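Hey, I was hoping to borrow your eyes for a little while. No rush at all, and the record is pasted right below:
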Amino acid sequence: MHIVQTVHSASSVVRAVKSELLDGRVVLYVGYILRLEAFALTETGIERIARLTLNARLSDIQPLADGRVLVTTDAPDAYALVVCLEGDQLVVIENVSLSVGPHARPSEHNVRTTVTGTRAFSWHYSSRIWAIDFAADTGVDANEHPTVCLRRCEADAGPVLAILHNDSDDRRVIVTRVWKTSENDFSHATSHVSTTLACRSTHTLVPLPQQQALLTLGGPSVRIFKVNAAAPASFSPVRKKQRKTKERPEPTVDHQSEETSIIWDWGEVTSYDVVEATERWARVLVGDQYGRLILITVTAKDSTFTMKKVLLGQTSPSTSLSYLDNGVVFVGAHLGDSMLVKLLTAPSGLNGSYIQTIEQFSNIGPILDAVLVEDISSNQKQIVTCSGSNSSSSLRVVQKSAELEHLGTISATDAFSHCRRVIPLRVSWNSRVHGSVLVSSARETWFANFADGQVNIVASGDHGFVTDEPTLAAGNLKADTHNDLVIQITPTRIVVISLAKPRVMVAHRDSNDLGSVELDVASVSATLFMAARRDGVIFYGTFTGNINLTWLTPETLKSRLDRLNEPFPPPAEYGAPRARPVLALATDNFRAAKPTTTEFVVGRLDSVELFDIKKSYHDGLQLPDATLRVPSQVQSVVWTDFGCGRGNGHLVVGCIDGTVVIQRFKDAYEEFEGGPRTIGLGNQPVLVVKDGNRVLACGSGAAVLYWGDKRLQVSTIGIKDVFAAVPLNAPGYEDSTIFVSHSGLHFARISKLQRMHIRTINMGYDCPVRIAHNPSGGAYAVGCLKVVPVRVGEALKYESIFKVVKQDSFDTIREFSDFEANEDIQSVACLPILPVRPYHSASGKEFRDAYVVGTACIVTGEDESTRGRIIVYETVEGEDGFNSWIALTHTVPGSAYALASVDGLLIVAVNTALQFYALEFNALSETERAPRLSMRLVKEWNHNHVVKTLNVLDHLICVGDVMTSVTILSWRDGVLQQMSKYFSPLWPAAAAFIKPTTVIAADIDLNLFTFRQRQDDSRMLEKDGRFHLGEHVNKFIPGQLVSYGRTSSSGEAAFVPRHVFVTSTGCIGTVTQADDDASRKLYALQRNLARVLDKKVPGHEAWRAPHTSDLPSGPASENQTATGFLDGDLLERFFDLEEDSADYAAVMAGSNEAERLADAEGLKALLSELQALQG
């Protein structure tokens, strides 16, 4: 089965409203596409206090009394939900179904709501209006279809509903109606406001109740209408017949309401909010499509109105404006970041803006395209997205890692050479402050102290430490007489030094006492130290004024050295050494609350052995109490309980192949719990070290292991080329970390683990629509459509631009703008299609990468583009980096929607055809001034519908069209063959290969599907997975965010990351394939979780069932349930349950004996592995 997980939730704001609670607190409710969040106002901004996940697409929010809000969701899951804030939770207290049928038409989506006192009215563009009183919802028939906007207006006789709609002559008309509660009647037309608008672009009504007026927005002018005082209602003939009366039929209203208007000088209106209103004046904030914020002031005097407009400044293009208090406004955005701004009374800055930005909230939606790359500065995966539009266009670099604050660097050439190990030393054994540090290379050691934020090297004669040898281990000792003692272990010596009065307290007498066998590995704790010789002999020691050594041999305890001046015993005296050498030692107690060490760990070639010192003292180093097999040679080892106490012990092993193996064990450490977990940090040996309740791991990359949300979590660190990390808490470097590299020491502070880092490269009006990555050139190819701002009613204008930008700095290398006026970029790719040599043999073809851009020439009046171009850009590395230029252009008979390559050929999706081109060197001489390259059409394959999606895996080509289906083609030896096809209507929006015989696709109804090729000769794709995501997927990107996973007993991966997907609302998710064993266990857990936890409307099963128009109507069938997919977001909620709670017991028990879950810890281990795949 495939598991769908969310890495970054949708960040595009649908609607935001302010509400006041009974206790006077002001709460901001912000609606995203699949969730509702509540924010409290603070002195510095806003703070999230509650969150509610919805099993439907949120379409509108309206404030109700007492701090509640009315949330409406979109068709086909159309509901009206009353939500209130209870403590730190948002709770649905009432719900009403607004369903228009199982398969709503597109015009029946976008459900909006208006509130009229104790009642609400909901509508969408082309269906009946719903009156909601939460005792019984009533569908109301009205003549005003299609409805554009509906608002409550105040009149002398009471409130009326103003309806903006299109009449039968396709004119935009405003009418008013009265609701009769006793008859559920909406047919009472009045003449409070009745007018036909000259412009059909008007789409919003703004009621001004204190002034009994109605403002219209959206057209080239802003108009205000007076709500007539005396406007008797008349009744429709239908209602007249039902009451069996002889009242006259509904009259035709010819009255045109009085109006005042001003010219609108900006773009289309996208949002508004009434800041304040009285009987004499009102102020309305209005936002346009380019992010301009305008204040309209309406003044009323003697039944006449005057209006003024002021441009306040620039924000992100807003979908919602919410005036909070004291001039603070929340700007909710779909394009660009949402913002919290303050309105100023006087202009500031060079541009004279009346707006001051208080806080910005990152929004990476809509994501039009994206690539998954490896960050060259940290060896970590990151996603680069084409986000935003209009004035807030940008490239976003998204990476999930710990936040790293750089504090300074000491270059190896400045003080140290070839650092290998850094050991901070505390002022005393019971202090948290480090006052000095030992820095060791392969040959020598330096001692330095911290003063005034500086690191100062101390001369060798002033401290007593051994400096002519490398240091294997060092640390503070807990002693009865002194608290400033430090022990240092080198290959030939052990010394104990006082830091308060720098001098050697005790030391080993002579390095020759070891003979030919030196110490190779050592470990130090406050009460114990251990070391191992190169021949495998191990000893441990304590300090009680003298160094006391206890030798542990393969046989029995041979001797004990109680005095300092006794030499190390020669190897022959203690028999043959162990056959396997010791590679790592750990003496720190894994119980954070107990500093006294009673156990130790020995790392060998392919295993880690756990011993008890007391047992070893009496019996010699015999068989270990427990042994953990590891897949590679051990490099380092620690054990810890991550600060959680009993029952949470973990053994963390760094291996030479770049992996970290983590094994949990019970409080009796000799008993392991579950299987080991493996994490990959590249291909370099990994060093692990304790950092309080965390563990730092460094290989090719770096990571922090910590315990959070009741599970072990891993957070990557954005730093590369470091091979060790140690914690530091010194003056000027409080709560920091020293990262060791070959170039020196790097001081940094780690904070905000597992944070989603979003770097923004602002592009203004240059909207990036397509992006491709060139790893060899270290650059991105970006296709942009430059937005030219226009006034409302004018035709939109775009200009195409192609940019090549650097991967690390995002500086523009080259920019090409020589496109035709009506030519739009449709596709961009970096493909291996350029022949390396003009002449080559068929068996030795070599190709290098080229940037390719596909365009379409848009002509007014054409339903489909009939002309486009393919532009190939050649790139060559020069003295100043890579340089690009146009190598050739080629005209195609339509729009070049998608690009790919196979066997060195360029594949272009041109309208309904696939065209295969070969790039060739021209035979003409340079004197004839011919282009160096030309394109030759090799093959053309025609399809029935426009092809929008191309995906290539080896010699296979996945083709997705905009209407019907997914097709798999094969290209071998110049022969194109259709391998399989799915023949039912699908309307795919994105498609990609999972395996050569398996495809994943997303359709326009927000579903995910998987297809596999049938085993028979029918050449058909059959649908074997279906899942409603609720998000519009724009692209599937093969790959994974991290490179670690869990291995089963068979050695095969239990979880295999397949794809990363991006959506139009800024959501980033992953699709992970689980093996059969994990799938069975997690499916059973999901079933029980959905029954116990998911009490939302609709339920989990109904929400995740596919929402498509091709499914059979009537009772639920097999086709109407989600299969082949698991909801990873729901599964992770298992961690939120307390083990002593009723919900936890209900989940484990199931509804019958067959659904009972037995292994809770095993399920948590599986979910921990799954969660780790998100980075």
About this structure: The chain has a mean pLDDT of 83. The helical segments are 237-243, 613-619, 1076-1092, 1100-1104, 1128-1131, 1142-1149, 1160-1172.
